[in-house]
Amino acid sequence: MPFDLHTHSHVSDGTEPPAAVVRAAASAGLTGLALTDHDSTAGWKEAHEQALSSGISFIPGMEVSCFSETGISVHLLSYLHDPHAPGLYGEIERSRQSRLSRAQRMVERLAGDYPITWEMVLEHSSPNATIGRPHIADALVTAGVVDDRSAAFSSILTPRSPYYVGHYAPDPVEAVRLVIEAGGVPVFAHPMASVRGRVVGVDLFREMIDAGLAGVEADHRDHSEEDRRTLWDLAREHGLFVTGSSDYHGAGKPNRLGEYTTPDAVVAQIEERATGSAVIRP
Ligand code: AMP
Ligand code: FE
Ligand code: FE
Ligand code: ZN
Question: What is the rounded CA–CA span in Å between residue 280 and residue 79?
Fold first, then answer.
């Protein structure tokens, strides 16, 4: 029975509490799920407890935002790392702080032209959430400026928009090393999702593999059939495993739990490699 290895709760930019994501995964008939909030592990405890009562497996995870030297956005999934390992923890804390001041600056810029305030953004995020453009998008929806998150992302929130402000994020090769150092298993999230912007070339991909990248998320709605084939071939060539996931964000995105899944055998490989934390089984 399959697993969904990439989901978000309101600890980052999903719209539901971690326990609700776990209950939804159980209702969808999944054997288990990984909670992979952006740059945060704050949802692990609640998800763990709910998984035990819902009778499904839980894999603690996280999605680390990275920027390459040339400014390409890379998302690295980390499974089963030690959340207290100082190297990785230090980097995600630095990112989170930078995201907060960056979001405030974006809202200051937007407030010159649109009826939004920082308070409205906070109303759309849970306490201590990893604040990102999705929360600003939600405030813009409430203000009647755009219809939904997607409309905000394709207009005033794109990196080419005058309202956009960048933020600090670790280098992807360094992030692979830090995940391994923390006892975790690094998997490249949606590596060819060109709908999100520029994607990495072979050189950086190779560097990440040389640093210890363990898997690639090939089966994802932001990949074309051709992208998936390319990634399956690359995985075979370099001995990486392949995952499939929904990248569920609750009501924040159309992605549905279990729309792509990962087989037990791959979950077993992840578990074998990890030393930072454990899979929770009912
Ligand atoms: P940020 O990290 O703050 O720059 O924002 C990127 C986040 O926005 C990612 O975590 C995505 O999940 C989310 N995102 C990107 N594109 C869209 C979209 N079209 N609709 C909703 N959320 C999106
Ligand atoms: Fe997200
Ligand atoms: Fe992502
Ligand atoms: Zn994600």
Answer: 12
